[in-house]
Design brief:
Number of strands: 5
CATH class: Alpha Beta
CATH topology: TIM Barrel
Distance between the termini: 63 Å
Strand content: 5-15%
Largest sheet: 5 strands, mixed
CATH superfamily: Metal-dependent hydrolases
Shape: elongated
Helix content: 25-40%
Number of helices: 8
Order of helices and strands: HHEHEEHEHEHHH
Number of domains: 1
Radius of gyration: 23 Å
Structural class: alpha/beta
Mean pLDDT: 78
């Protein structure tokens, strides 16, 4: 039969002889920093639409990390669970690192009160969720009246167990230090993750953060 004849073209013959490589299935992507309409001036989507997008994208889970509040946590968890999505509860909080005199802060507009940097805290366990609730409550109850809502680095270190911390992207404490070319300050701020140990994640968006991520990753 014609199909039994050997292939005359050497290139096609070589290609046919190569073993077929099975492409691995793509890994599911999970958003870990999402703002809903509960983040005033930052998010516009109702919680139902956020969950709907996760269902449409076939995401196994999605995080809700509204700024300085957990107002939508219960509603989000209920809607996500109902639609077969694993809810991840988190919060973006402004942190006062207490190093206002660091050179990395120069060039940014100062406002009354401490210099603040956003980080994202995600509850990884039940205890972590309880600690996150305590942090958000302290941000409103234990600050000087008139100051912006924020938490202190000491509070984060005290209540770190059970939580995952993201460094806040380009506007976070590490990103802003790198942008202003202050590697030493970036390293110092990154070291606060030692309280969270292996549960600290870094968002490496620029060459400096990639390098720092590798450097500190080897120390874990």
């Amino acid at each position: 039969m014609a199909s039994d004849r050997p292939e005359r073209d050497p290139l096609r013959r070589e290609a046919m002889a190569r073993p077929q490589v099975v492409e691995p299935a793509p890994r599911p992507f999970v958003h870990l920093r999402v703002h809903s309409a509960y983040s005033l001036l930052e998010g516009a989507l109702p919680l139902g639409k956020v969950v709907g997008h996760a269902v449409k994208d076939k995401a196994p889970a999605i995080a809700m990390t509204d700024t300085n509040n957990l107002f939508g946590a219960l509603e989000f968890a209920q809607k996500a669970t109902k639609d077969g999505i694993q809810p991840i509860i988190g919060c973006q909080l402004d942190v006062a690192f207490g190093d206002e005199n660091a050179d990395a802060n120069r060039g940014y507009q100062k406002r009354s009160g401490p210099e603040l940097f956003p980080i994202v805290l995600i509850a990884a366990t039940e205890d972590g969720y309880a600690n996150l609730v305590r942090l958000v409550s302290r941000a409103y109850l234990e600050n000087t009246p008139g100051e912006p809502v924020n938490i202190t680095l000491a509070w984060v270190e005290e209540l770190a167990p059970g939580m995952i911390c993201l460094t806040g992207g380009a506007l976070g404490p590490v990103g802003r230090a790198i942008k202003s070319d202050h590697r030493a300050v970036a390293e110092q701020r990154l070291l606060f993750r030692s309280t969270a140990r292996r549960r600290f994640l870094r968002r490496c968006l620029a060459w400096g953060r990639v390098d720092l991520g590798r450097q500190f990753g080897r120390r874990q």
